[in-house]
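Team,

Forwarding the record for the chain on the shared tracking sheet. I've put the sequence and predicted structure together so nobody has to dig through attachments.
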Amino acid sequence: PGLPSQAPSTSVKLPGVQPINDIAMTLTEAINRAGGMNPVADQSRVTVTRAGKTYLINLPLLVQRGLNPSGVMLQNGDLVRVPSREDSKIFLSGEVSAPRALAMRNGRLTLNEALGEAGGINPVTGDARKVYVVRRNGQESVVYQLDANAPGALAMAEGFELAPKDVVYVAATALTNWNRTISAMIPGSLPTAVIATTPAVR
């Protein structure tokens, strides 16, 4: 009989061990035996670990390319994992209209789509020249910068594919930073401080 194929995950209904007999088991069959996927399952990031190597399988992409996911055959000892979409979120912060965490759509989300979902760059406080994407690669972080005012920036942002756990950050303008610094130093609102320090006109 050999070792069983496993399909443990929080995003299938019945995680556990699935025995493989003389009849070969497909990836689709293993997931079905585990009760199918939960609504929060990320079908674009299914992994199969075999002999110490992990393979990423994007089920919607396979179907889009005309390939049948049932053609993926499992072997004894394979470990199948179906992650949650919660594990593939993108985080938007800084000077966007609505900072938030976004789930990827079938494993894809472009920088342009993410900014659109967050309501775009705040037109009053945001510096469109300083849009950053911070990506963690192992122990190091890689930072990409986009000047949204530059010609072709929209096309570049639409073609920039985000990765799970990316942080999109829009910096504040110099004036916004100055206003916030003064507001922190002087009690009360900035307009009140300005009026109080302006000589009266006689």
